[in-house]
Write a structure and sequence with these properties.
The chain is mainly alpha-helical and about 150 residues long. Helix content is about 75%, strand content about 0%. The protein has one domain. It is built from six helices and no strands. The radius of gyration is 19 Å and the shape is elongated. Pfam families: DUF29.
Amino acid sequence: MEELLTLKELLLQGNIPGALIIVEELAEMSRNDIIKTIRSYAVILLLHLIKQQAENRTTRSWDVSIRNSVREIQRENKRRKAGGYYLTPEELRETLAEAYLNAIDQASLEVEEGRYEPEELEKLVNSEEIINRALDLILSGEQDTRLL
């Protein structure tokens, strides 16, 4: 809110260069919020993909959670008015990689009722394969997500 008041004051003063700096800061703050939201859904997505791979099975609940997370990531990443996307596929991959450690920690509590420590669980699953699967699901935006 403070930034908006500063922006208004700069515009009233005719200080366009100063106002543009504030606009850039606001845009960066907005983008960071979007990335944070995407990362939160990425943790949930990765958690269930890790559980699927570690336990070599799935449940309807996991499948629904995966679909919902994919939809939310796709929705958050889409620029509504300007068109296009906030994050490129490479930036999405980086965000998934950042979320992976949180997901493996959470999965260690859930896989086989918490049998594994995070380090042990990491050795049981293929992180690259899981991240690639998550990215493929997210980028399949043209497909009907009910089929994922």
